[in-house]
UniProtKB/TrEMBL annotation:
This is Protein kinase domain-containing protein. It holds the Pfam family Pkinase. Residues 1-21 are annotated as: Disordered. GO terms for molecular function: ATP binding; protein serine/threonine kinase activity. Keywords: ATP-binding, Kinase, Nucleotide-binding, Serine/threonine-protein kinase, Transferase. PANTHER family: SERINE/THREONINE-PROTEIN KINASE DOA-RELATED, SERINE_THREONINE-PROTEIN KINASE AFC1. Residues 97-320 form the Protein kinase domain. One of its GO terms (cellular component) is nucleus.
């Protein structure tokens, strides 16, 4: 009956009539009705951005298709067995973001490097698994990120959130593109320690960022080298005489160091307010405070214990 009505009264207001169940993604499968020959079919949908539905039409020039447009969004495909979004490099994540590479994967989901076609810049998009508990945790993280961004006027403490949207039942959080984590830098550098002066500078920034969060009554609870990112990926190559592992003929050993010491905290999915329940276990095992292990209750000091573990690790030298 609805299809017949649309065919009999083809006017623009018909596409704006209320639906019984709104779509949560701009590329949800459209309801295709056979239009009259004189009326072209315009593919459109809805996209949820920052909690508001907006209608997404094809970008100019105004080309009309009889089905879903090409080179915009990939065909609908199911998630993998763990609820991760299945993607292909080069395809689009909504009309605005084009997938360039995969940056990482964790329990929460995946992080993809994408090109923002609107702002013409690279961004990092965290695609959360399509499971309800992870979706709820993602909404809490968005709230924390917006709260931090509101008070971080210089943008030097924590990673900055650019945008967020709900895409095919996946919460997607758009971040600024940063460099590698301290852990990734150590791993690619054969786990060679940083110079003590550089570790001292890292310590100053980490403590300032943690103090900034504590002043807002927020506890990170998951500080570790993986969650501390260098702002710039640029490196310099220097001599290292402390590691005589297979030295070259000239007797010198080279290692890489960050060109810039600027760092930022990331991953606020486990961040907790000080007034919330603190009876559960927090922190990654290697950076977990004694009071957490012993079940004595925890608060702000658990972050400081993690910072101490991080600094010891950055100063340590591995001979593996």
């Amino acid at each position: 009956m609805e299809a017949q009505w649309l065919a009999e009264y083809p006017h623009q207001a018909a596409d704006n009539r209320p639906r019984k169940r709104p779509r949560l993604a701009w590329d949800a499968a459209p309801q295709l009705f056979p239009p009259p020959k004189a009326i072209p079919m315009l593919y459109c949908g809805q996209e949820l951005i920052n909690g508001n539905f907006t209608t997404a039409f094809l970008p100019p020039p105004p080309i009309y298709y009889a089905g879903p447009p090409r080179n915009l969004s990939p065909p609908w495909r199911p998630d993998d067995k763990d609820g991760h979004y299945v993607f292909t490099l080069g395809e689009n994540l909504t009309p605005r973001y084009r997938i360039l590479s995969k940056m990482g994967e964790g329990t929460f989901g995946q992080v993809l490097e994408c090109w923002d076609l609107e702002n013409q810049e690279s961004v990092a998009i965290k695609i959360v698994r399509s499971l309800q508990k992870y979706r709820e945790a993602a909404m809490i993280e968005i709230d924390v990120l917006q709260r931090l961004g509101k008070h971080d006027f210089t943008g030097s403490r924590c990673v900055q959130i650019r945008n967020w949207f709900d895409y095919r039942n996946h919460i997607c959080i758009v971040f600024e593109k940063l460099g590698p984590s301290l852990y990734d830098f150590l791993r690619k550098n054969s786990y060679r320690s940083f110079p003590i002066d550089l570790v001292r500078e890292f310590a100053r920034q980490i403590l300032e960022s943690v103090t900034f969060m504590h002043d807002l009554r927020l506890i990170h609870t998951d500080l570790k080298p993986e969650n501390i990112l260098l702002v710039s990926p640029d490196t310099i190559r220097v001599h290292d005489y402390k590691i005589p592992i297979r030295p070259p003929k000239d007797g010198s050993v080279f290692k890489n160091l960050p060109k810039s010491s600027a760092i930022k905290l990331i991953d606020f999915g486990s961040t907790t307010f000080d007034h919330q329940d603190h009876n559960y276990v927090v922190s990654t095992r290697h950076y977990r405070a004694p009071e957490v292990i012993l079940g004595l209750g925890w608060n702000y000091p658990c972050d400081l214990w993690s910072v101490g573990c991080i600094l010891v690790e950055l100063c340590s030298v591995s001979t593996q």
